[in-house]
Amino acid sequence: MNKYLTASILIGALALSACTRPDRFGAGAGAGADGLGAGAGAGAGFDQSAGIGQGGLGGAGNPNSPEYFAQSIGDRVLFSVDQSTLTSEAMATLDGQAQWLMTNSDYLAVIEGHADEQGTREYNVALGARRANAAREYLISRGVPSSRLRTISYGKERPVATCSDPSCYAQNRRAVTVIAAGALS
Amino acid sequence: MLTRTIALLLAPLVAAAALPAPALAQGGPLRITISEGVIEPLPFAVPGFQAETAGAEQLAADITRVVAQDLSGTGLFREIPSSSFISTPGSFASPVAYPDWRAINAQALITGAVAVNGDQLTVKFRLYDVFTGAELGEGLQFAGTRGGWRRMGHKVADAVYSRITGESGYFDSRVVFVSESGAKDNRARRLGIMDYDGENRQFLTDSNSLVLAPRFSPNGDRVLYTSYESGFPRINLLDVASVGRRQISTVEGEMAFSPRFSKDGGAVIYSVSTGGNTDIYRTDLNSGAHSRLTSAPSIETSPSLSPDGSRIVFESDRSGTQQIYVMSASGGEPQRISFGEGRYGSPVWSPRGDLIAFTKQNAGRFHIGVMRTDGSEERLLTSSFLDESPTWAPNGRVLMFTRETQGASGGPQVHSVDISGRNLKPVPTGGFSSDPSWGPLQQ
């Protein structure tokens, strides 16, 4: 029992530290002092040329970093009410995502589908699955290997905007492409 | 006895034909028929149960309160305060002073006694029809352990409710639900279990991973729920007594969710999403054998079996919007049964078999409603910013559901309402709560 408990706490601690490290995906990890293999594979070329100081910026300036992907390319696309059809704006964002994923071929991506709160819980899980899949299919059509793309739906359970009006609902009806290091899969 | 039996058999038909609302038959024997026109709640008196052993006084008082609260809480009964009493019974065996109870218009009188022997608790009660001056049914005695004192009160109230309404009770039952805490965009969720009245709350899981929509097994020993513990939505089976849990083997797919037990508890019906398409499947828990029940490119989810196990009600957007359908339990061509304005979801078959409860979304409002199993006689019982996920009381007369308030500080709270739309109220859960699943009457 004690052994089991200790093990769980350790695993918990590891998971927590992994989550709170800003450079958890490895690319652009400046200090490189950790033993968890930051920079495993992905972005390694950049790491070799980057100075220690540069890495400390968190990687958002590095076009091969997940932070750059999220902030500059755009990690999410939005949908109309009860729809999973991609808008032309969404397709433009996904074109950028596809290009980045083709360039950074060591990364995997999990596409998270979400719904706004104006729907029943289980239907919204299914609707989020549809949205995540729409984004995934589009990325595949642009050349990203399907083996690198997984989907998950959170339904309406993970809103990013908390008001109860159309402006917030619009932000919550989304598919978010979350980059994960291939070495972690 | 004969008239009672006939009334019981007729009750579902009456419920279907008229808007069910509680009615008190005036001038006849003590009786509430839940299915007829609206009238005042039935006044009852419950003098404090007698303590028959030294030290049982507090338990006797507490159990009396549970009985009174259960009955008053239905909205069908009204307790007469003890300050109005003209006399109180000398002992459990004393003859009833009917004139004293008639004088304060008590129509039902409940007397009881409590004895404690070590950890053993004994509760007995008698129910009297004050106006006919006769006992209604025979006195009953329940024996159990001291820690189960609330259940003993619920058992007494269930017997009283049952004798007066002709329906089975629902007070000695439990509810599993999702307990929620934290900010709206970072909410922690864990499974909780409680008595039907919100008492004896306990957690069944920690809040490290997202959980959705727990569902009780038919005999209340296990719970199915959707868990993100593995990183992706999967179906877990939890044993209530040991709190042990395991992921069940489902059809391969990206997501498995929306589980419900078969009527014998030996199989699970649920949804799997693959490639953006969601269909309904069935898996036998013992053999692990799977079968596919729907094959459509649309969303098919929230399956619920009829009490005889022959049919499944579920929701689908194959018509373009979310609607309710019924099909054979083995699959096959479904019949659409919802045709009103708006969208319909989360259908649940009543344990009586006569009605289907659902969530309706129309013109920016959410409603809990009921309809007959062919979709006729739709009635909306509630209306708010967001009501959803109904679950039936074991007697099919009351629903619990989730009501969520709007805005950043809003949150969900389990509520209950009876099938006439009366007696809408929150169930105390000590914080945000959602997705109730009402278990069976305990043995």
TrEMBL record, chain A:
It comes from the Bacteria. GO terms for biological process: cell division. GO terms for cellular component: cell outer membrane. The Tol-Pal system is composed of five core proteins: the inner membrane proteins TolA, TolQ and TolR, the periplasmic protein TolB and the outer membrane protein Pal. They form a network linking the inner and outer membranes and the peptidoglycan layer. This is Peptidoglycan-associated lipoprotein. PROSITE patterns: OMPA_1 (PS01068), OMPA_2 (PS51123), PROKAR_LIPOPROTEIN (PS51257). Belongs to the Pal lipoprotein family. Coiled coil: none annotated. Keywords: Cell cycle, Cell division, Cell outer membrane, Lipoprotein, Membrane, Palmitate, Signal. Part of the Tol-Pal system, which plays a role in outer membrane invagination during cell division and is important for maintaining outer membrane integrity. Residues 66-183 form the OmpA-like domain. Gene3D superfamilies: OmpA-like domain (3.30.1330.60). It comes from Limimaricola cinnabarinus LL-001.
Automatic annotation (TrEMBL), chain B:
It comes from the Bacteria. InterPro entries: 6-blade_b-propeller_TolB-like, Tol-Pal_TolB, TolB_N, WD40. Residues 30-136 form the TolB N-terminal domain. Keywords: Cell cycle, Cell division, Periplasm, Signal. Residues 289-307, 431-443 have a biased composition (Polar residues). GO terms for biological process: cell division; protein import. It holds the Pfam family PD40. Residues 289-309, 405-443 are annotated as: Disordered. GO terms for cellular component: periplasmic space. Residues 1-25 form the signal peptide. It is found in: Periplasm. Its main location: periplasm. The Tol-Pal system is composed of five core proteins: the inner membrane proteins TolA, TolQ and TolR, the periplasmic protein TolB and the outer membrane protein Pal. They form a network linking the inner and outer membranes and the peptidoglycan layer. Belongs to the TolB family. PANTHER family: PROTEIN TOLB, PROTEIN TOLB HOMOLOG. Part of the Tol-Pal system, which plays a role in outer membrane invagination during cell division and is important for maintaining outer membrane integrity. This is Tol-Pal system protein TolB. It comes from Limimaricola cinnabarinus LL-001. The gene is tolB.
